[in-house]
Amino acid sequence: MRIYKAADYAAMSKLASDVVAAAVIKDPCCALGLATGSTPLGLYASLVARYEAGELDFSRTVFVNLDEYIGVAADDPNSYCSFMQRHFFSAVNARSVNINIPNGMADDTAAECRRYDELLEAHPVDVQVLGIGHDGHIGFNEPGDAFVPGTHAVELDARTISANARFFGAEENVPRRALTMGIGSIMRARTILLLAYGADKAEILARAIRGPVTPHVPASVLQLHADVRVIGDATALAELI
Ligand code: GLP
Description:
Elements lengths: L1 E5 L2 H18 L4 E4 L6 H12 L9 E4 L1 E3 L10 H8 L11 E2 L8 H14 L4 E4 L21 E4 L2 H11 L8 E4 L2 H5 L3 E6 L5 H9 L17 E6 L8
Parallel strand pairs: 1-10, 2-3, 2-6, 3-5, 6-9, 9-10
Antiparallel strand pairs: 4-8, 7-8
Helix pairs in contact: 1-2
């Protein structure tokens, strides 16, 4: 693991954007694994600015998102699909045919998980962007007794529901279930960028990076990956370096 300590959120976002931009410039047909949450917003803003400056072309890039709430329609403002459109896809020349997000409205969840796994096999991810939940989740892989390899449905942890209540007005409005890419798919990405911002992430980040590898801290599995870049601001990295 390489750990990059950025002075602040803007510097963290710029560092992450450098890695993603390099991948797109090197191979415009690359596959980017993207994440939602507040943490990567600065990364997306930086990529949009580079697109607007003519530095990046996303017309052939494939996008594969990590997760989506179950029961929230794609056009609902709280869906991860809407989030990605709002903050990134609609602001660059991403082609809709290249945008992939699990369908949380699928009637047959098992079939949707299979479809997503097949898609991931067809488009191996070059750079996977990750945030980290307060319980150590990546995507929506919540703490549990085993690492689940493929795309699957999850029950959201109470801490995740409470952290995401800010988007839904109140905890009772937060969906209880989600579809997420599995740990095996995340680990198959060639390069992983784990972004962390803020003092409230310091403790879980230290447990994920320095603690035992355990499915009770899902992000700890990243210790076993050959090319993980942890990019955090000074407060998130306070317990590490
Ligand atoms: C959600 C997403 C995760 C994200 C996490 C942290 O649960 N499913 O992919 O990493 O939130 O979000 P934030 O960056 O807002 O702290």
